[in-house]
Amino acid sequence: MEKEVFFLENLLFKSTAQEIEERYQEVLQLYAHDPEILNIAKSIKGMCDYIMKTYKEIPNPEKKLDESLYTTLYQVLKDLSITLYDLSIAEGEQIYYVLSSAYQKLNGANNLLERLV
User: Are 58 and 67 in contact (CB under 8 A)?
Assistant: First the structure.
């Protein structure tokens, strides 16, 4: 049973990582001319890559990482994925709201990961 749960969790994380990569590429294409949006998208992608690296280290008693982190890390990944999606669909004045929200989410994710990891 434990192996099945691990397999499903792994599949869930990998599919979310693929979704993030696709959304990241879409934002890069849409906003190739806008350095601010490119910068936030790269920051989000970097944070997601760091989360995936952290996920792969669970469980790790040396870093006090245990299975209870799976849900938290997954929720942060999903939230950042949605932010990339929002960047890809925002138009006009909406983009400023989405950018502001993206900066806040990145800051929150960074603060959370500093405490957890």
Answer: yes
Which tokens go with 45? 């992608």
Two structure tokens written together for 24: 């990241």
Flag whether pLDDT at 8 surpasses 60: yes
The answer to whether 80 and 48 are in contact (CB under 8 A) is yes
**Concatenated DSSP letters of 78-90:** HHHHHHHHHHHH-
* Contact criterion met (CB below 8 Å) for 84 and 44: yes
Q: Is the pLDDT of residue 91 over 70?
A: yes
DSSP 8-class letter at 65:
B
Distance CA 88, CA 91 (A): 9
Burial 93-112 (b: 16+ CB within 10 A, else e): eebeebbeebeebbeebeee
Closest to 64 in 3D by CA, of 9, 115, 10 = 115
The structure's pTM equals 0.88
Q: How many CB atoms lie within 10 A of CB 3?
A: 7
